[in-house]
Specification:
Blueprint (H helix, E strand, L loop, with lengths): L8 H18 L5 H27 L5 H33 L6 H10 L1 H28 L1 H21 L3 H7 L4 H16 L3 E4 L7 H17 L4 H39 L8 H5 L2 E3 L5
Antiparallel strand pairs: 1-2
Helix pairs in contact: 1-10, 2-3, 3-4, 3-5, 3-7, 3-10, 5-6, 9-10
């Protein structure tokens, strides 16, 4: 009697990516949100950072302006990214129920959640700055301090990523503030997958070939830039295109994936085209020591 071996993490990630892609194909409006977020983010970042550049231009000693307005611009970028992610999640949830959605519907949901998005953006940015500060200070210490600091920063980042895995679906579907949203995200994970969760099923493996091609094009472009400028520019343009394509599709698939897993964790709903075994193994548990 043959026993079917459960799929490994890579195969499971590919299966989940395919299923997520099926949702995107069923509702083309979902791809609009990442597309809109790019120019919106660039515009917001430029507008918020411009005063810092102007102040420094007037007084070359006012380097503080770049720091202050850099943080303000980073907050604006964070808010913009989460705003469009919430809009996508709201429409993805409706698409999973067979409804045809529009960009306006998603933006309307995100607009109604603007307050909690603003609050969560501040939390997300603060945690990111703290983790970066820990890593930076540890790097300056050198030796064992750098190693310990790097480990703390990495572990903290992973723990934060797992704890906040469902934040966007929670914001989109339930509209909770930062503190209850984190509790909700962590609670859903613990209730469905138990204690000691250390990671989620990665669907980014499917983009590995594109990433390799992007790196090859980038390296080749810089290598040829001085000897054959047209070819170098062409390769750099290809690298930029691959980067944009990977970022666009990856963010869309991740958004759909999180909504599906969130709905499954709540009531065991398995959409058509998805495998329950893959969803059930969406998170990996910490291995127990013997």
């Amino acid at each position: 009697m043959s026993v079917t071996k459960p799929p490994g993490r890579i195969r499971r990630g590919i299966n989940l990516a395919k299923a997520s892609w099926g949702v995107l194909k069923s509702d083309k409006s979902l791809m609009a949100f990442p597309l809109l977020s790019i120019p919106a983010g660039l515009l917001v970042g430029l507008v918020l950072f411009a005063p810092g550049i102007a102040i420094l231009a007037a007084d070359d000693k006012a380097t503080w302006a770049l720091v202050v307005f850099g943080i303000i611009a980073a907050y604006g970028l964070t808010f913009t990214a989460i705003f469009f992610a919430v809009a996508l999640a709201a429409c993805a949830s409706k698409a999973l129920e067979g409804e045809n959605t529009t960009v306006a519907q998603g933006l309307a949901v995100a607009k109604s959640r603007a307050g909690v998005i603003a609050a969560w953006s501040l939390v997300q940015l603060t945690v990111g700055l703290v983790l970066n500060a820990i890593q930076s200070v540890a790097r300056d210490q050198g030796g064992a301090g750098a190693i310990i600091g790097g480990i703390l920063s990495f572990v903290g980042g992973v723990a934060w990523a797992v704890a906040t895995f469902f934040i966007v679906p929670v914001l989109a579907l339930e509209g909770l503030g930062p503190k209850p949203a984190i509790k909700r995200s962590v609670g859903v994970i613990k209730e469905r997958w138990g204690e000691g969760v250390v990671g989620s099923a990665a669907i980014g493996f499917v983009f590995l070939p594109l990433i390799i091609l992007m790196i090859a094009a980038l390296v080749g472009g810089f290598a040829l830039f001085n000897t054959n400028q047209p070819a170098g520019v062409a390769l750099l343009a290809v690298a930029a295109l691959l980067f944009a394509l990977t970022a666009l599709v990856s963010s869309s698939l991740q958004a759909v994936f999180r909504v599906v897993v969130f709905r499954y964790a709540q009531d065991g709903t398995v959409p058509v085209g998805w495998d329950e075994a893959d969803l059930a193994a969406a998170f990996t548990a910490k291995k127990k020591r013997r």
